[in-house]
Each structure stands twice: as C-alpha cells, then as structure tokens.
Amino acid sequence: MKSLLTFILVALTAVNLSAQGKVKVATLSPLLADLARQIGGDKVIVVDLIGSHGNPHTFNPTSKTLQKAAGAKLYLASGKNLEPYLPKLKSLLGSSAEVVEIGRKIRSLNIKAGSSIYACCPNHSSGAVDPHWWHSLVNWQKAAKELEGKLSNLDPINKAYYKQNSKTYRKKLEGIDNWAKKQLFSIPKPNRQLATAHASFGYFCRDFDFQSIPLNGLNSEQSVTPQYLAEVVDILKGKKVKAIFPDESSNPKALKTASNATGIKLAGKLYADSHSSIEAMFAHNVRTIVAGLK
Hints:
Blueprint: H1 2-21, E1 23-27, H2 30-40, E2 44-48, H3 63-67, E3 74-77, H4 86-93, E4 98-101, E5 109-110, E6 129-130, H5 137-154, H6 159-184, E7 193-196, H7 202-208, E8 211-214, H8 226-238, E9 243-245, H9 252-262, E10 265-266, H10 278-293
Parallel strand pairs: 1-2, 1-3, 3-4, 7-8, 7-9, 9-10
Antiparallel strand pairs: 5-6
Helix pairs in contact: 2-5, 5-6, 6-10, 8-9
C-alpha cells in the first residue's frame, strides 16, 4: 500500500513538474495564438488575451487582463504600429516578459494610391505602413520561423521539437498558398479588383495580383468623408468592379452607400483582423472572393 501511495505521489509530482516546465505564451491576436500552438505544440501553454471577437486595434491592456497571463515569458504582438497600446503593455510587464512584435522583421508595404497594389486609398492613410502583414502566407511562414527561434531560446532542450513543428507547418502553409493561387488566378485579370471595407488586404493583393480599393482607412474606426466616398465611387465605376466586400468588423453604412451609388453588389464578408487560424481565414476569404468575382 505504501509503495502504491509513493508511486502515485511521484506520478503527480511528475505531472506537476511537466506543467510547470511548459513555456507560457500570451498573444494579442487569435491568429498569433494559433501560431503559438502550431509551433509550440504540447510544450507551451497559450493564453489569447483578446479572444475571437476582440479587436487588436482597440484592445486596452489592464492589470486585470494580464492576470490571465501570469507567468508568461513571451507576449506575441503583430507589430507595425497595429497595437498602439504596446508601450503601456511593456510598462506594465517591465522585465518579467519579452514582448515580440512578430511582424517587425517582415518587409512592410506602404500605402500608395495609383500603384500596382493600391488602385486608391484614403487620403489619411496615404504613405502609412499597412500593418496587416498576415494576409500573406509567405509572411506567415516567416512568422513561424521567427517564433521557432524565440521558443528555442526560452526552451533550448526542446529546440529540435520546435524546429520540426515549424518545418511541418511551413510546408502546410506552402500547400495552402499554392491552392489559393490556383483558385484566385482563375479569376479573369480585369476582375481582380478587391474593394473592401478598410485598407487591410494590401499584402494579399500583392501576392495574388489584385488591386486594393479600400473604402475606409487602416482600421474600421476611421470614418469615410463624403469627398473620399465620391472619389471611390468614381474609381469603382471606372474599373467596373464586380463586387464590394465587407469585413467582420466594418460599419456597413459606407459600403451600402457605395453599392447603391454604383449598382455594384455587396458580396460575402471577409475576415480582415481576426480568425481562429490563418488556414481557416484564407480558406474562407479565397472562396468568398472567387464566388464574388469569377
């Protein structure tokens, strides 16, 4: 009996030590939470501070929020000025954890009207960095490699594990990218005009040979002036755009106004800022775009 109790105690201690040995990662996006799970596997504990219905543009970290991530050594942010609250977050954390802006090392797109990528853009966003780098699967592969390195530094004993997970996941992303190209390149070139709620699909348009026509600015909080809306309506008509795509967080008023003024249909909603995974986001967005434009 004594030996059995000893065995149980040792087993429970081992389980406890195993749980304690995992790297705790806090994320500021459901997409980054999924990335952490893909690369970290069963060696990490992931805490998504924003959740599937949160907005990374407007999230406000508080001491109460951070209690959910107590003990986290790594905080994952998108970067490229997407999260204006990062200075506050870093101040709250001090030296207790590292805040990694995953998008920092990824080459930025600058919004520029009349370019091969942007058919037009809001005046208040012209020249700004597009922070929505995750709409490129090539970029997401780079993010996977970046996170592999960060986890390996924190947990070197499991370096080979993270490396293998990263390799497998990046291969999977390559397959999704090839599938997306096959689907999207079936759309006639003149129809590859992506009219969206806000300026969030520049990297997508670059990778898949589209032009971006955003009705709002870099986020859904930026308003649309009557003057800019009139300019967009002229461009939509001139380019004979086939569909306007709302997104999950957009105010439909400006889009309905543009649709009514041009006779262009409102297509299905796209996911711009948030989803459960990058694979699910791309699958939905690609199918929705093909259905609206082909």
